[in-house]
Please model this.
Amino acid sequence: MTVAEESTPVAPPVDPRRRRLLIGGAAAVAATAAGIAWFERSRASSQDGSAVLALVLPDVDGREQPLAQWRGKVLIVNFWATWCAPCREEMPQFIAVQKREGPNGVQFVGIAVDQADKVRDFTKEIGLNYPALIGGLGAIELSKALGNDLAALPFTIVLDRAGRVAHTQLGPLKTAQLDALLKDLLHAAA
Amino acid sequence: MLALPPGTSPTAYAAGVPGLTAKLLPPEQAFRFSARALDATTLEARFDVADGYYLYRDKLHFTVEPIAARPVELPAGKRKHDEFFGDVETYRGQVVVRLPLAEASGGRTLTVHADSQGCADVGVCYPPNPQQLKLVVPAAGAVPGAYVEAAPARWFK
Model:
């Protein structure tokens, strides 16, 4: 059982597009069974990380970076901003884990709800060793579409090597929590 | 609006920290913006910050239309050291700010815009949050107007 399943006891909200796909692909969702069936299937759809892997965002140098280039890795996508103190506080931990677990197939990607110049200065200052992509304020809407209903930061989505959402997190990821999650995901893939 | 199964919280998906999302307020409830006219040349803007939340003083800005507000003096906040931004000031509880108008505006309807940005002590921050409200300025000599609350923030329309 993954951490996401443990910490997500009820069905996620599903945006209208996803819901259409869901209903289109699940003709068996009859009105009478809608409660249970919807619950199960929307859980299944929440495990699909293709919306994350479909993202293409510029890095601090303006180069477009498709997230699909990291398909097959344990991908940790962290929405953050320089104006968000709790975001900045957890990033040194991410740098350490990227360094330690990068060779084992872990890839962090930051999506900054921020301006490129501020991101560039900050990432230099802390010696960021993973890509910082620039999402601007629009990235907040993007994170909402991916489950960040309160539009708050930090917000982190972890995909397993198969591209399924293994965990979503609003608020800081504690070191022990991240270690346990990665142990699970890296072990599962081995 | 999507119909969710009974008992389903619409915010449950993001609850990576068990219960954190459910406990957090949307920003327009965490930082309630209201304003009133004190007299024909003075408005009063107010933020009611919920317990466990704070606003940054240097991210708080007000503008008034179509009659401009003269330069605004924000009250002193509580000093806090931020390792990236240096010393910053924050507001908790109630923040009241006087907005002097550039000219007497009795009887006019004015729009007050507020830009704010704040965080929750549990370790999340909300993006810059533009809010606005309309109020009618009482005629000269009348009693202060009632507080008007802001409409829901743009992110939540």
Observations:
- The CA atoms of residues 155 and 170 of chain A lie 5 Å apart.
- Chain A has two domains: 3-46, 55-189.
